[in-house]
Amino acid sequence: MRDDPVDVRLAARLAELRAEQGWSLDELAERTGVSRSTLSRAERGEISPTAATLNRLCHVYGRTMSRLLGEVEGEPAALLRAADQPRWEDRASGFVRRSVSPPHPGLRGELVEARLTAGADIAYDRPPVPGLEQHIWVLEGALEVTEGDTAGQRLERGDCLRLRVWGATRFHCPGPGDVRYLLAVVLP
After folding, report:
1. Under CATH, to which class is 80-186 assigned?
2. pLDDT digits over 58-99, tens only?
3. Which run of H or of E encompasses 142?
4. Would you call 92 exposed, middle or buried from its count of C-beta atoms within 10 A (0-12, 13-18, 19+)?
5. How far apart are CA 135 and CA 117, in angstroms?
6. Domain boundaries, the chain
7. How far apart are CA 10 and CA 81, in angstroms?
8. pLDDT tens digit string along 101-121?
9. Which of 9, 61, 112, 148 meets the CB 3.0–4.6 Å disulfide criterion with 167?
């Protein structure tokens, strides 16, 4: 078991969501394209899922990543102090995510601070919710964002890209330093 209490609660919530759907691990593996073994280990808390794996799970469960993580991070409040903003890290890809907005299931928008280490490359094969609106504002460094088969957009400090996500996306930090960006997510 992982020592991080968020990882432990996330594992339990993933198992609950699958049980609520009445799916076996094999059915979930087929729906997500994630191996049965990885899903099983994630639900038992032996591993923390990568950002790409979590995105696939969010897609089949009809949730944004922020909503899922909000479900395991505790009760929502109107004010979320900087020191209390939950962080989640995908160590394998060099992605760190901090939920800036207080979570609330009834609201459509949220703010997330994201960091990618130099050279990090995260590919999502689909959005967690089709038609998800994203505003990506680079605070430090550079970020390349690719949507579907279109050429990637290079964003530098102060640049903001707005897109509605229907298909695959890719986030790449070309370096030489890390990138820090604000992601505003709005449900359709």
Report:
1. mainly beta
2. 999 988 887 888 777 665 677 888 998 889 898 888 999 998
3. strand 142-147
4. middle
5. 20
6. 5-70, 80-186
7. 22
8. 887 766 788 899 999 999 999
9. 148
> Residue 166: what residue type?
W
- Architecture per CATH, domain 5-70, reads as Orthogonal Bundle (1.10)
């990506």: which residue's tokens? Answer: 136
Residue 109 Cα distances to 12, 23, 43, 155, 168, angstroms: 26, 30, 28, 22, 21
Q: Write down the pTM of the prediction.
A: 0.69
Query: For helices 5-21 and 51-61, what crossing angle results, to 10°?
Result: 30
Q: At what angle do helices 25-32 and 36-43 cross, to 10 degrees?
A: 120
59 SS3 class: helix
